[in-house]
């Protein structure tokens, strides 16, 4: 019995050792095949943005690549909010908006969705008029219920003096078209997309923001990348 245990232990040791060596060789081989490993990667992700532009039909000047939608949600808040500013959140929905608002010292005004998970546009309008929040986070399809925001509701909200961040993380599963191209018509709209759901590539964690404000900043018309045309925004 003791002999068997020792044998199995030794076997495990050797097998894991050999596997480790094989994996290391594989990693070295992959690293060795990179053409310019000593050069920083393109900080503007130009090739990636060009590919996304081709896929989406929206010019790459409007597109910003980030490390997952989570990073971009935080980035938007850092660009737009000062501590004490307000955002609108429509629960039940993705909880990162509330989390990142807390990280950025912002207050969250909650306008709960209706029983059918539709947006309460009347209450959203009221809150925006009276509380003057700087941005609203809308998710379509919504996490967790999958409901989609219709054009009428979205257009009404886009007419209000607020930066609208439309999170389309699950758009590929809805059968409806992305509103990415809407950013050309609506200066106060930012659309978020991600590969983590579409391609099941959680590890790649790449996502895009499309926004008119970002496009203008690239052409030198604005100083900050993501501001939106928001009368409630002092930036
Ligand atoms: C609605 C929604 N937006 C964004 C994300 C985060 O996406 P990413 O994996 O690109 O950070 C999630 C993740 O669950 C999500 O449900």
Automatic annotation (TrEMBL):
Keyword line: Aminotransferase, Membrane, Pyridoxal phosphate, Transferase, Transmembrane, Transmembrane helix
Catalyzed reactions per annotation: L-histidinol phosphate + 2-oxoglutarate = 3-(imidazol-4-yl)-2-oxopropyl phosphate + L-glutamate
Transmembrane segments: 7-28
Domain (Aminotransferase class I/classII large): residue spans on this chain: 40-203
InterPro entries, per the entry: Aminotransferase_I/II_large (IPR004839), PyrdxlP-dep_Trfase (IPR015424), PyrdxlP-dep_Trfase_major (IPR015421)
Signal peptide bounds: none
Gene3D superfamilies hit by this protein: Type I PLP-dependent aspartate aminotransferase-like (Major domain)
Protein's UniProt name: histidinol-phosphate transaminase
């Amino acid at each position: 019995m003791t002999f068997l245990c020792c044998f199995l232990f030794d076997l495990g040791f050797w097998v894991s050792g050999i596997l480790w060596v094989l994996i290391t060789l594989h990693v070295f081989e992959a690293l060795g095949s990179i053409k310019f490993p000593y050069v920083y990667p393109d900080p503007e992700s130009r090739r990636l943005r060009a590919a996304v532009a081709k896929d989406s039909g929206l010019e790459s000047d409007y597109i910003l690549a980030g490390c997952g939608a989570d990073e971009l949600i935080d980035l938007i808040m850092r660009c737009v909010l000062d501590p004490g500013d307000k955002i609108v959140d429509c629960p039940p929905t993705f909880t990162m908006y509330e989390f990142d608002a807390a990280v950025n010292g912002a207050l969250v005004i909650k306008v709960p969705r209706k029983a059918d998970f539709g947006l309460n546009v009347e209450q959203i309008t009221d809150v925006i008029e009276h509380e003057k929040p700087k941005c609203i986070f809308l998710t379509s399809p919504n996490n967790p219920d999958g409901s989609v925001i219709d054009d009428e509701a979205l257009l009404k909200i886009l007419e209000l003096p607020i930066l609208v961040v439309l999170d389309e993380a699950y758009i590929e599963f809805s059968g409806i078209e992305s509103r990415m191209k809407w950013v050309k018509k609506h200066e106060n709209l930012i659309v978020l997309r991600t590969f983590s759901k579409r391609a099941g590539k959680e590890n790649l964690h790449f996502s895009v923001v499309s926004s008119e404000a970002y496009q203008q900043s690239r052409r030198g018309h604005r100083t900050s990348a993501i501001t939106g045309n928001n009368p409630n925004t002092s930036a």
